[in-house]
Structure formats: structure tokens, C-alpha cells
Write a structure and sequence with these properties.
The complex is a heterodimer of chains A (208) and B (220). With 208 residues, chain A is an alpha/beta fold. Chain A has one domain: 3-Layer(aba) Sandwich (Rossmann fold). Chain A is 30% helix and 28% strand. In chain A, a hairpin with a 2-residue loop joins strand 1 and strand 2. Chain A is globular. Chain B is an all-alpha fold. Chain B has one domain. Chain B is 83% helix and 0% strand. In chain B, helix 8 runs antiparallel to helix 9. The radius of gyration of chain B is 18 Å and the shape is globular. In chain B, 45% of the residues are buried. Classes of the chains: A alpha/beta (208), B mainly alpha (220). The interface between A and B is medium-sized, with 29 and 27 residues.
């Protein structure tokens, strides 16, 4: 199932403040792409627009699978998203969070995959603990499990290594390399090391 | 609809653990009814006045608790998570089921307390009163859910919610006041038909508006 993403003349303003204009870009599965730029350049804004949670002022985001457009109401089935401003439900345990996410997404809860992801991010022994007791690094690792739970075709990683220790960072780089083989991976970051993994880099500041 | 039910289940479980809305609603109901009882004292209260005050308690109790359904997501910062896992229509119906349960719990408790505490709260036509409560409850839940989604991102949520809800709920409350009066007088369904039709129309219009507009409200 080949997935592709196209940005057509994407323009975003907050009030009268222009964030970026006329971004045209095409993303194909099999590559990792980077969004670079200084703080406030609009990397996160562009990531949110691609995820469909923020509307652009002008332009279109076209998600395709097998040459047919993915309807907006189905988009969440194809996207995995990680960012520091993504917050999961603190009042639930790690496992409960994933069980609810699966049922709200309308997918079967895959116990094997969940176990694999918990082990991968070293959270298996903490799966029955409430998220409010997790450290910021553990919460960041939990976000990766959330993003990968449903085998997404597009992995959007905004500041992918924030709050992570060296071991966690290496794990994220491994996942990026693994995911880029069959899916589209987009990394929005200021970190040189994060961007080194990207085959193509879109400088958001060039679209002012 | 199964996905919407999952959103509701998540919210209900979360509510049982955090008591975000239920405590606020319960306290508000108790405080408002107590204030009415203290202010009335030994003065005789007419049948119609108790009916009017009944809907005042329901309106303000609804304003104290029903916005939580979206405000709690916004305050905890989990709105983005929900946007990433569900289509807007799923979220709207999930939150609506949650608010419907809250509204009916609220209406049942207020009705029981009222029947126990106010001697003059006498309903002659009980079936008409219950039909009005049922249709009115649905209307309050739909409107409150939609308005809660609108105000959740505002800085002045607490003030904005009753202010924005008042004009939208006014036609509903006025119709319900009339129907309460009719049920106190023991009027028939045939006599009250026009008002019942208004309630049904209000519910259908608000549900359609919610279904069509929620996508725009939900997306930043």
C-alpha cells in the first residue's frame, strides 16, 4: 500500500503574522524528510497542518494511498505523531491509554505489537502504572508507543529526541531508520544529529 | 458509533477517577436548592413559581458542569491526542453521549430533591412532564456540548459559557417552562402538541448544526 504526501501552496498566518507561504513539496515512502529552521520558524505549525489538526489559510495537503486520496475522516488511521506538546492521559495507566486509543481508532488491540513496543521502549514493567507517575523521558517514550501502535504510514516527529537520554535517542534513530524503509518519516528539529538522518531537508524559513 | 462509544467510555472512566464534572454538578445542585429554600423561608410559594425555579436550577447546574467535557481536555492539554486518534464526528458524538448521561443524572437528582423539598411542586400530568424533561434534557445536552467545544479554547471559559449558552438555550427553557405549567395544570398531550413539536424541532436543529459545524470548531 504505497503512501504519498503532497503539499500544494501551503500558506499559514496567525492573525496578520505570516508564518510561511506557498510551500510546495512532495513526500514519498522510503525516505526520511526534515523540517529545519530556527525557533518560531513554523516547523511545528507545518507538522500540525500535515497531521490535519490545524487548517492552512491557503493551499492543500493531499494524502494518498494507492493513488487515491485519503478522506479527512480517515486520516488519523495513517498518521503517527510525536511531539513535546502532545500529552497523553495521566489518569490512566500506560496500557489503559493504549487500549482506549485502539478502541477509539476502531482498530483491534494488537497485544503482540503492544508488548513488542513496550519492550522496545523499556516500559513493559511499568505498563500498569498511571502515567502521572512517569518521568518526562518515560512519557516521551510512551508517545512513541502511541504513535507506532497502529502501524502508521506517515510518522511525524516534532523534536523527536527532546527529554530523552542517550539510549532513548539511539532507540529513536533506530526506529526512524526502520520506519523509513516502508513509510514516510518527517522530522522537525533544530538538532543537527536529528537532521543528519534526513535525505531531504525543507528549510521552513525560505518560505517567508 | 462504536468509536463514539469508546470516546464516551474513556471520558466516563476519566470522570470516575478525576471527578471533574460530577462533583461540580452535585455541589451546585445542593447549593442552589439550599439557597432557594433559605431565601423562601416560611413564605408560601406558588405552584408555578416552583416550576420556574426548577428550570433555573437546571440551567445554572448545566452551566457549572457540562462545559467540562471539552474544557478538561483543553486544560490537561490532551485535545491534540484526541484530534490525532478520532474523526471530529466521533469526538462530537462521544462527548454528546457523556453530556446526555450527565444531564439526565442531573435532571433526575433535581426532580427527586424538588419533589421532596417543595410541597407545592405538584405535577398533575406526570407523563407530559417526563416527556418534556426527556426532550428538554436532550436539547440541553446537545447545545451544551456544542457551546463547550466553542469556548474550550477561550481564556474566559467560565464567564463565556453561560453568556453564550443563554441566548441559545432561551427558546428551549421558555418552551419547557410552558410545558411544566401545562403538566402542573394537568393539560393533555393534544393541548401541548405545539410546544412538544418545538422541543423536537429544537433538538433536531441543534443536532444537525452540531454535526455540520463541529468539524470547523474542532480544527484550529
Amino acid at each position: 500500500m504505497a503512501y504519498s504526501l503532497t503539499l500544494e501552496n501551503i500558506t499559514k498566518l496567525f492573525g496578520r503574522q505570516l508564518v510561511f507561504k506557498n510551500i510546495n513539496y512532495h513526500f514519498e515512502a522510503g525516505k526520511t524528510y526534515g523540517f529545519a529552521g530556527s525557533n518560531g520558524s513554523g516547523k511545528s505549525t507545518l507538522t500540525k497542518i500535515i497531521a490535519g489538526v490545524l487548517a492552512p489559510n491557503k493551499g492543500k495537503v493531499i494524502h494518498k494511498t494507492n493513488d487515491s486520496n485519503i478522506p479527512p475522516e480517515k486520516l488519523h488511521e495513517y498518521i503517527g505523531f510525536v511531539s513535546p506538546y502532545l500529552i497523553l492521559y495521566d489518569e490512566f495507566t500506560a496500557l489503559e491509554n493504549l487500549l482506549y486509543f485502539a478502541s477509539i481508532r476502531g482498530i483491534k488491540f494488537d497485544e503482540e505489537r503492544t508488548k513488542h513496543l513496550f519492550n522496545l521502549f523499556k516500559l513493559y514493567n511499568r505498563r500498569n502504572d498511571l502515567l502521572k507517575g512517569f518521568s518526562s523521558g518515560m512519557k516521551q517514550r510512551m508517545k512513541y508507543i502511541f504513535a507506532l501502535q497502529h502501524n502508521p504510514k506517515l510518522l511525524l516527529l516534532d523534536e523527536p529526541t527532546s527529554n530523552l537520554d542517550e539510549e532513548g535517542k539511539e532507540k529513536v534513530y533506530e526506529i526512524i531508520k526502520l520506519e523509513e524503509e516502508k513509510n514516510v518519516v518527517i522530522v522537525a528539529s533544530n538538532e543537527k544529529k536529528d537532521l543528519e538522518l534526513c535525505a531531504d531537508i525543507l528549510e521552513v524559513e525560505n518560505y517567508k | 458509533m462504536r468509536k463514539a462509544y469508546s470516546v464516551f467510555k474513556k471520558d466516563w472512566q476519566s470522570e470516575l477517577r478525576t471527578r471533574y464534572a460530577i462533583n461540580a454538578l452535585a455541589m451546585f445542585i445542593l447549593v442552589t436548592i439550599s439557597v432557594i429554600l433559605f431565601s423562601v423561608g416560611d413564605e408560601p410559594v406558588t405552584n408555578y413559581l416552583t416550576g420556574g425555579l426548577f428550570w433555573v436550577v437546571i440551567f445554572f447546574s448545566a452551566m457549572s458542569g457540562l462545559s467540562r467535557v471539552f474544557v478538561s481536555e483543553e486544560e490537561r492539554g490532551t485535545t491534540l491526542t484526541l484530534q490525532l486518534i478520532a474523526a471530529p464526528v466521533t469526538v462530537f458524538f462521544g462527548k454528546l453521549i457523556f453530556n446526555l448521561i450527565l444531564v439526565f443524572l442531573m435532571i433526575i437528582s433535581i426532580t427527586i430533591l424538588y419533589a421532596m423539598l417543595f410541597d407545592n411542586f405538584v405535577i398533575q400530568n406526570l407523563s407530559l412532564f417526563f416527556v418534556a424533561l426527556f426532550l428538554g434534557g436532550i436539547g440541553i445536552a446537545i447545545s451544551s456540548t456544542l457551546i463547550a467545544a466553542i469556548i474550550a479554547k477561550a481564556n474566559t471559559k467560565g464567564t463565556l459559557y453561560p453568556v453564550l449558552s443563554f441566548p441559545i438555550l432561551l427558546p428551549l427553557i421558555l418552551t419547557l417552562l410552558e410545558l411544566t405549567k401545562f403538566s402542573m395544570d394537568g393539560e393533555t398531550f393534544l393541548f401541548s402538541w405545539t410546544y412538544l413539536a418545538i422541543l423536537v424541532s429544537y433538538d433536531v436543529i441543534m443536532l444537525t448544526a452540531g454535526f455540520m459545524l463541529f468539524d470547523f470548531i474542532w480544527k484550529e
